[in-house]
Give the backbone structure.
Amino acid sequence: MAFGRKLDGVAMLITTHALHVTQPFPFTPSSWELVSNSTFGSSNVNAITKGLNRFVAVGNAGRLATSENVTSWTARTSSFGTSSVYSVAFGQNIFIAGGSTGKLATSSDGINWTQRNSSFGSSVILTITYSESANIWVAAGGSGKLATSTNGISWTQRTSSFGTSFIRSIYNIGSTFVAVGDDGKLATSTDGISWTQRTSSFSITSIYDVSSNANGTFFVAVGDTGKIAYSSNATSWTQNLPLFAFGSTSIRAIDGSTEELGPFLAAGANGKVASSFDGEAWAGRNSQFGSSTINDVFFDSSLAIIVGNAGKIAYGF
């Protein structure tokens, strides 16, 4: 098979000579459109997920909204009161959201929410993920706390290997879990329960997020001061050189396309967003966020969404 790529995301065709056919170049957003009314007002939007053909976005002051088409959003009652919601995930046909003071809630439809006992006490919950292969939920956050659950309702605290350093994100693909956080800490696990610290190549710089390609053979982690690292196995990491797309700007989120040959999409402070196929060369785009920080990225084979400060949500095309 012979194929061509362009790192600036311009549409191309991949030609498979053996089959004498052409395949569309993997979707790479090159332009962005702001949602006219996210319903978050000026409150920050912190995270977004999708399930049951519905998007759920969460943010500061207990705000939560849903959408079936990305462009039109409906505000919902989150059950968090005025507490900020920092994370939301979907799995087992339920949504789970976590936030300030250890608050955690579940929903069967993304609209009606029930508070649960998270086992985090007063520590913030910053990230939640579900592993279908291991049939386990993992949540983590402040003071290095990490907990697991088989049903999203009853949670058990685990030893994270982060000490008291905050865990900013947990990513899972297949039997590989990767957790990243403050002080350059990065850990891996095969079950979400037992964790091993790795050398991240970030020194003491905070790592905010991590993702992989569609088949879990290439990982990219991003963090403060524009640092980016990549790995073929999630255990040994190579630090990338500072690039023009981000410079020394903090990179807050990254997501890999669900297409096998698809790119990564990363975003962060000052509204910066960029795509890359190899974790090294990044093509920056105008996110329409101005100077507002982008806090999370949703990216699949046909749609890209970014959410961030000042109530902003945008979709890529």
